[in-house]
């Protein structure tokens, strides 16, 4: 007779004001539960890259099963069975049909809202974004209804001409027509939100705290020891890997903060933000992985850099600004630099996909139980094209999406048709969103 004690799904390791949520463990499934009871939840995230993509190196010259991937997608070659490429999706609402906030503002502001965004001298207006509709439905089951994350602020980089433009180019998530949800840019701020008490410290207080900082895992040692004593070998391994990933994030944060202090202690840079783009990307996605793994949230948006960014990528030998490069006027040398930036972004994303795929969960992986959209609000940045947007999904949403393929739709198919299918998989049933004309075909396994 089975007597294994079941652990509540919302269990925490606690100690000294710290609460560390647990990953999905086998011991969380009641001994005699039906198989569906212990099924991991489906997670959803959007990874948005700015200024369009060189579509010559994005679109394969075939449909159907994925074979050799084009240049920009090469980093995903080991995971091509885990991705679905979607062609001819369009955001007509990003075009200048009415007065608007500029192409870059419109394409970003309408990306998850699916409506024409406006700019006036009085206010801004977008709409409730798709991620927030889902968060309003499923967010009560997690600690955070959603998380908004990014790597750069247009106001700090000087890439916006007014507060109105910044509102659009800086935000993917919108709680209401006039309320964007700004992304968290500072890794330390994200870490404290996930595991800390949420208190915002002054720079001086942060320095004092860092001097005496201990790992959060030190405070939950006793709870961890008690939990491990009742776990089987598989769950002990899962728990150890999970806690090790939290500790590694702490180490990365410590290194970034020390590096920033060495560079210039007076620099006006968010505390703990690495100077290196790849390091910053990995640190944020590592924490996004933890947030999904511990079911702290099931909905996230990740603005890789803000729309219209003029960021330079000196680490790969490109001192030119990204946005000016995309207006290359078909000059081969400038187009090559854009392609290199696109490849660099994809390399970082592929690293996150690899991380998600490495984590076992239920009868699959964390990637299997997710659907991560990677894409942009523009295709050709040179002409500000809003059709055939670069779009792929990594993960199969609990094995309900048939991956390993490329599907090309009728031209001008609304991106919002895809969103309806994604909302279905998150348990949100609606017949219309944005400019949708119906549900998208070709996602299902059948």
If you had to describe this structure to a student in words, what would you say it looks like?
It is globular and about 65 Å long. A hairpin with a 2-residue loop joins β12 and β13. α5 runs parallel beside α9, α8 runs antiparallel to α9 and α9 runs parallel beside α11. The chain contains twelve helices and 16 strands. It has an eight-stranded mixed β-sheet with strand order 4-16-5-15-14-3-11-8, with helices on both faces. Strands 1-2 form a two-stranded antiparallel sheet. The protein is an alpha/beta fold and 446 residues long. 47% of the residues are buried.
Summarize the biggest pleated sheet.
8 strands, mixed
| Count of separate structural domains | 2
Order of helices and strands: EEEEEHEEHEHHEEHHHHHEHHEEEEEH
Give the radius of gyration: 22 Å
The unreliable regions are: 31-36, 263-268
Mean of pLDDT: 86
What name is given to the CATH topology of the largest domain? Alkaline Phosphatase, subunit A
CATH architecture of the largest domain: 3-Layer(aba) Sandwich
Structural class: alpha/beta
Number of strands: 16
Strand content: 5-15%
DSSP helix count? 12
Tell me the helix content: 25-40%
The gross shape turns out to be globular
Q: Order of strands across the widest beta sheet? A: 4-16-5-15-14-3-11-8
N- to C-terminal distance: 40 Å
* CATH top level assignment of the largest domain: Alpha Beta
């Amino acid at each position: 007779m089975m007597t294994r004690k079941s652990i509540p799904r919302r269990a925490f390791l606690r100690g000294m004001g710290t609460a560390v949520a647990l990953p999905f463990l086998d011991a969380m499934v009641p001994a005699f539960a039906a198989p569906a009871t212990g099924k991991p939840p489906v997670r959803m995230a959007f990874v948005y890259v700015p200024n369009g993509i060189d579509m010559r190196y994005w679109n394969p010259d075939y449909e159907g099963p994925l074979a050799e991937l084009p240049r920009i997608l090469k980093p995903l070659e080991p995971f091509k069975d885990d991705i679905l490429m979607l062609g001819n999706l369009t955001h007509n609402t990003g075009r200048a049909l009415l007065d608007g906030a500029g192409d870059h503002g419109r394409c970003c502001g309408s990306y998850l809202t699916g409506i024409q965004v406006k700019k006036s001298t009085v206010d801004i207006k977008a709409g409730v974004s798709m991620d927030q509709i889902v968060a309003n439905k499923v967010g009560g089951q997690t600690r955070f209804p959603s998380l908004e994350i990014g790597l750069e602020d247009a106001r700090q980089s000087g890439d916006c001409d007014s507060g109105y433009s910044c509102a659009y180019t800086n935000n993917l998530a919108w709680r209401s027509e006039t309320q964007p949800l700004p992304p968290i840019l500072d890794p330390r701020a994200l870490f404290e939100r996930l595991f800390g008490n949420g208190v915002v410290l002054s720079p001086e207080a942060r320095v004092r705290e860092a001097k005496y900082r201990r790992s959060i895992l030190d405070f939950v040692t006793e709870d961890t020891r008690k939990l491990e004593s009742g776990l089987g070998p598989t769950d002990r391994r899962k728990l150890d890997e999970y806690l090790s990933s939290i500790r590694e994030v702490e180490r990365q944060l410590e290194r970034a903060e020390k590096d920033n202090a060495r560079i210039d202690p007076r620099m006006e840079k968010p505390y703990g933000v690495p100077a290196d783009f790849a390091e910053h990307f990995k640190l944020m996605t590592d924490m996004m992985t933890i947030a999904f793994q511990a079911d702290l949230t099931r909905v996230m948006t990740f603005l890789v850099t803000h729309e219209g960014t003029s960021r330079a990528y000196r680490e790969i030998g490109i001192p030119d600004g990204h946005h000016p490069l995309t207006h290359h006027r078909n000059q081969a040398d400038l187009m090559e630099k854009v392609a290199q930036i696109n490849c660099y972004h994809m390399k970082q994303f592929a690293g996150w996909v690899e991380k998600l795929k490495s984590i076992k969960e239920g009868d699959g992986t964390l990637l299997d139980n997710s659907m991560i959209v990677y894409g942009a609000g523009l295709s050709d940045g040179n002409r500000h094209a809003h059709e055939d947007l670069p779009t792929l999904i990594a993960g199969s949403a609990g094995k309900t999406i048939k991956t390993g393929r490329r599907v090309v739709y009728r031209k001008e198919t609304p991106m919002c048709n895809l969103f309806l299918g994604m909302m279905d998989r998150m348990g949100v049933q609606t017949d219309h969103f944005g400019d949708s004309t119906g549900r998208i075909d070709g996602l299902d396994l059948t």
